[in-house]
Amino acid sequence: MIVRSLLVGAIMMSVNGFSYAQPVFPVWPHGEAPGASSSTAQPQLVERSKDPSLPDRAATGIRSPEITVYPAEKPNGMALLITPGGSYQRVVLDKEGSDLAPFFNQQGYALFVMTYRMPGEGHKEGADAPLADAQRAIRTLRANAEKWHINPQRIGIMGFSAGGHVAASLGTRFAQSVYPATDAIDSVSARPDFMVLMYPVISMQADIAHAGSRKQLIGEQPTEAQVARYSPEKQVTAQTPPTFLVHAVDDPSVSVDNSLVMFSALRAKQIPVEMHLFEKGKHGFGLRGTKGLPAAAWPQLLDNWLRVLPVSTEQPKAAP
């Protein structure tokens, strides 16, 4: 295991034969999130893999969220803001981040893999710290869409596990003010044009919630109001964006019921939604864990869905 501090800069790695020297930029204008001043979190980057060809980095103690860019050589104008999982204790950067770049870049998608702060580490926004980071991230991408060769009306969020909760929270609570405005970028819409929820943590209802994520987010004895506020299936509105859901029925960590309740909530509001349930795959399969399984089809199924998705009617503002 290798531990080192998180730094803004170029990341060098090799994934599945693809070599990258990736640009990295901060989510917040001064690096550290404004709400991090009350936190004692200590940033670390941990390499958990013993195989150099299969990196498995985990970021912990995040104070200065960052976005790593994987641009497409032949862009199709669409962008995926990636929020990897980690039980709201860490952010897993490769299995649910850099691993995605070869396939999706080849199809023309620009990938933006972000780190986000943990809700239980004393940040001023509390349980809303990850949402604040996601709102700021998508606003930054939209405000700088021309720079990254993306259509500002074709920017979606793709979240895995606890990162799926971040994504679903953004898709249902994008208009809620959860941090003080810092500059003109904060006047740009934070609404994602679509959501991709991969084996997501959704509900905070005790009978189906992922216990670890729930504890980190709202504690062991939350109020009914907290449960409702942080259960995205209870926050769906007519403005929630089109959604693509993927889950394994045999998931032992995050019950498939999380995707099922989100699917039902979206249907109730007549939001376009597509869901793929696979018999096998367990939890956290990403791309690595799908070899020899029907679940290996999920990236192509997502690409098929995105290619026919109507352009959003959202009218974003340009960069100041």
Write a short abstract of this structure.
The protein is of the alpha/beta class. It has helices at residues 101-106, 129-143, 162-173, 211-218, 224-229, 257-268, 298-307, and strands at residues 2-4, 11-15, 18-22, 24-26, 44-47, 57-60, 66-70, 79-83, 91-92, 110-114, 155-160, 195-198, 243-248, 273-278. This is Alpha/beta hydrolase.
Care to describe what's here?
There is one protein chain. Strands 4-7-10-8-11-12-13-14 form an 8-stranded mixed sheet, with helices on both faces. Helix 2 crosses helix 3. Strand 13, helix 6 and strand 14 form a beta-alpha-beta unit. The protein has a single domain, classed as 3-Layer(aba) Sandwich (Rossmann fold), CATH 3.40.50.1820. The protein has 320 residues and is an alpha/beta fold. The chain has 7 helices and 14 strands. The N terminus and C terminus are likely disordered. The protein starts with a strand and ends in a 13-residue tail after the last helix.
Q: What would you call the structural class? A: alpha/beta
Strand order of the largest sheet: 4-7-10-8-11-12-13-14
Residue share in helix: 10-25%
How would you sum up the global shape?
A: globular
How does CATH name the architecture?
3-Layer(aba) Sandwich
- Radius of gyration, Cα only, in angstroms? 18 Å
Number of spatially distinct domains: 1
N→C terminal distance: 43 Å
Largest sheet at a glance?
A: 8 strands, mixed
Number of helices: 7
Mean pLDDT: 93
Supply the CATH superfamily name.
Alpha/Beta hydrolase fold, catalytic domain
What is the CATH level 1 assignment?
Answer: Alpha Beta
Tell me what portion of residues adopts beta-strand conformation.
Answer: 15-25%
Contiguous low-pLDDT stretches (5 residues minimum) are: 1-20, 316-320
